[in-house]
Amino acid sequence: LFRAREWWSARSEGEGEEVSGSLLIANVDNSPEEEDKLVVGGLSGVLRIYRPAGRGYKPADLMLEAQLGAPILQVEAGRFSQHSPKEIALAVLFPKALAVFCVSTTVVQGEATDDSFINLSLLYKHELKRSAFNFTYGSFGGTKDKDIIAVQSLDGELLFIEHEQVTFSKFLPNFLVPGPMCYLPQPFDAIVTVNSQFECQCFKYSTLSSSSGGNIASEDDREKENRRARTEWTTCLGESAIQVQCFKPPGYLTSEKYEIVILGERSAFWLTGSGSIRASKEMEQPITCMYSYVVQAQEKAVNFLFGTISGQLLVYNYDLKLLWAALLDFPPISVGILSAGGVRGLVGTLGENGDVMLSYMGTEPPSQVINNHDKKQLNYENMDEEHRKLLSIIRKSTTESKSEPTDRLILRAQVPNSIDTGNPDLNWQNIQVTVKLFVSYTGQDSLENIKLTVKVPEPFTCNIENKEIPFLEGGSGTPRTISLVFGVSSPSLPTGTEVSVVAAYQSKSGDPRIVSSSFALPLALCGRGIPPVKDGAYKITLDINQEPPSLLALFEDIPFQGGSTLPNVFSFLYHDGTQTTIIVAKNTNRFRIQSAAFASLALLSSELARRLKLHFANAEDEFMIGFNDDLGEQLNIYSTVIDSHFDARKALKSLHDELEIFAKEFRTIQKRLLVRYKDRNASSLMGMDKLLSMSYDRIVSCAEKGEKMQQELKSRANQLSNATRLMLLLLRFKFQLDDDGFNILEDHWSPRVVDCETQYGWEEATELSLGLLLKTALSKSGQREATLPQEPPKAAGDTSKLKK
């Protein structure tokens, strides 16, 4: 609703990305006026200290800018000086070192005003053997007038440093990656952190110190889990953490009671000192940082300030009620509250590029908010009428033919009639066909980053599935030539021979364009010719209105494997061993296609029709192919193919359900067996180890059956796809469908059988689409639109409705 009002800001020169925790608000120079300073450290190694003296940035506000020579991970202020325990020192964490500096102020008198500068002197520095991640500090062990630093490394070591001396170290348990941590003061005297298992863990300092014996942990301690640190309590959060802070709840600001607030990726959690979750809040968008502060009013209270990834500042009270929200100019990665220039309660925020801003949450609305002051009652009839007019305009604009652009990409394929190797005795693993694809551009300029995609039907493969052409010159130059090598991946029945090539590119004006081209692979890639085979269980007969040509001349490009040939008989052997034969009647213009498998008739029938159309393309009379037999026999056979595929789907679903039950049983036995193993008082396993082995064997057996059934389902889907193509072809020849009518039928009765892991498959999709086709294009009223069902289709129990 409101924008945060900028009071002061300092823009970074962009040396490097900042990190959360690199913004510090403290009186680091121990000035008597107790003025807050802004300390910013970044991964570029630059340390800056600001003292905002008034509204608006002035060069004198930058008191220090120093290059420390290494990336700065974190800066904190505390009682780190051994010689001046009451003064605050500055601790800076680097990846391989921890340095403590003394910050002092020097006043230079000028003619008009006095300028203040900060001196940075090194007190001591610890070189770290392990790469550091973050650190926390506090009065560990009840120490007075000094703070002890605990550094967490990337491999889970907690290293405790007391002034110039390293006291001891300990490795954290169940460690994978480091997480945020904070110090929980007395009476807890503990470290609170969140591990990679989304658990909040508490480690008491006394337990860490006594178990370490005052020694530095060795590699042996890291490898053995029993030598790692022991937790005081553990609480599961179920979410990774970004930041951890402790605070005193309302009513206990003067006592020694503390609570913990943990900032997760999408939620915030409030925990008591004993580890129980007091409250949690799920945010609408990811949170980047937080800060807790005490409100000095009639009654003391605690509020929480959250920064979001969209640049919002959200203020919540202790009861998780949203008090205020304001919008910043950038998403903050660190936030705090300070007093500067005599103004109290300013909000300090740090951006990811190093920008620092002090603001206050006023009542200025955002400039982009649109207010609707029109209170007129809505006229739904006029809105409906306007909607109809717009739909009519859209239909007219989409149906009108538009001229093709002059600068367009052209795809042209040169397909050979035969395979590359002319030896017909070669098996399916060694044959291949090389297709030359020519890519040219008609424009006068050039194109860049043209993405080509090649899609082939099963079981064919292509050496190029996706290819990017970085540059293509336009004009009348030589087109770019790409060699596409096609082979066979398995000896299964092809579901088709059509290959589609799609090119996506952007024109010089920035408009996205897509060009597609398709071509058919040669039949020789699907198998080879064999001596005539006149037996076949499944037969179809096609009639033509021209004198039939010789089959040897019609299929002259197909290699034959020995034996004699006849001009009116052509037998073809697929790679899976299926034989299909075409026989030409002697006295009538008829072709009979027969095979031992119903699905094998589709590809050769389609190829025969294509070659006949090319042969009679220049005939005086229009060439026609007809199918005059009754479709009842073919429909009955097709129904058995559908049932076979549907039964395979149900069998695979049943195996998946059994596998889920067996896996659940296996996990239950595992848990009970682990409880027995962890029990300190050894007890009998009661045969659960044998039960676990039997359950494992059942899972393996069921999984093997599932793999076999998946292969069987793939084979039956292949048969269903080819059978569907054959039925569509027969319907086209029987009712003399034109291209538009056939495309509509093929779109609704799709031969592309895709089986996914869900409960919906080809049967449910085909039943729904054919139902819509009957209500629209095939209805008596000629209706062009139909309403889709609002609810998702239910899984079919059988195929009786589909077969009707």
Structural class: alpha+beta
- Average predicted local confidence, pLDDT: 86
Number of helices: 10
Largest sheet: 8 strands, mixed
> What would the principal axes of the Cα set say about the shape?
elongated
Q: Which regions have little confidence, pLDDT < 50, spanning 5+ residues? A: 369-375
Strand percentage: 35-45%
Computed over alpha carbons, the radius of gyration is 39 Å
Q: What portion of residues is helical?
A: 10-25%
Neighbour order of strands in the largest sheet = 22-23-24-25-1-28-27-26
Tell me the distance between the termini.
60 Å
User: Quick one: how many beta strands?
Assistant: 42
Your description of this structure?
It is built from ten helices and 42 strands. It has 804 residues and is α+β, with helices and mostly antiparallel strands. The strands form nine sheets. The protein has an eight-stranded mixed β-sheet with strand order 22-23-24-25-1-28-27-26, with no helix packed on it. The protein has a six-stranded antiparallel β-sheet with strand order 37-39-40-41-38-42, with helices on one face. Strand 20 and strand 21 form a beta hairpin. Helix 5 (601-615) packs parallel to helix 7 (688-735) and helix 6 (632-678) packs antiparallel against helix 7. The protein is elongated, with a radius of gyration of 39 Å. The model is unreliable at 369-375 (pLDDT under 50).
